């Protein structure tokens, strides 16, 4: 009965951990270091989008391990990457409208 009423402690813990993971995923910023091939002057088939995605997957898997979801780390990383991309697209396409809504809600 506690699950239906929303008072289950295990469910609350799982919910807070998943929220924490998606907050991490949507606020993650890639490192600004150059790949080794660029430091040496030779650039061989370096795809910046693939490098960014792989960097995100590594960080997201580490975050999933930290919050106790090691069994679902790959799936959470993929879902987090998709959520991050959707959020970026929405802010790019509808940024000005969202700014007005947030300003209105904040009372500015």
Question: Mind explaining what this structure looks like?
Answer:
This protein is mainly α and 108 residues long. The protein has a domain at 46-108. The protein contains 5 helices and no strands.
Order of helices and strands: HHHHH
Indicate the overall shape.
flat
Low-confidence stretches: none
Distance between the termini: 43 Å
What is the typical, i.e. mean, pLDDT? 84
What's the assembly state of these chains? single chain
Quick one: how many beta strands? 0
Give the count of helical stretches: 5
The share of residues in extended strands comes to: under 5%
Radius of gyration: 18 Å
For the report, how would you describe the main beta sheet?
Answer: none
Structural class: mainly alpha
Summarize the amount of helix as a percent range. Answer: over 70%
Structure described in brief:
By secondary structure, the chain is mainly alpha-helical. 75% of the residues lie in helices and 0% in strands. The termini are far apart.
List keywords for this structure.
108 residues; mainly alpha; flat
Task: Reconstruct the topology from this structure.
Layout: H1 2-5, H2 9-27, H3 36-40, H4 48-66, H5 73-106
């Amino acid at each position: 009965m506690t699950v239906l009423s929303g008072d289950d402690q295990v469910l609350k813990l799982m919910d807070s951990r998943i929220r924490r993971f998606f907050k991490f995923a949507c606020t993650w910023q890639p490192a600004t270091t150059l790949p080794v091939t660029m430091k040496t002057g030779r650039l061989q088939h370096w795809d910046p989008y693939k490098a960014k995605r792989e960097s995100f997957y590594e960080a997201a898997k580490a975050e999933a391990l930290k919050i106790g979801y090691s069994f679902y780390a790959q799936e959470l990383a993929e879902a987090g990457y998709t959520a991050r991309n959707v959020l970026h697209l929405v802010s790019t396409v509808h940024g000005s409208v969202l700014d007005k809504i947030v300003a209105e809600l904040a009372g500015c």
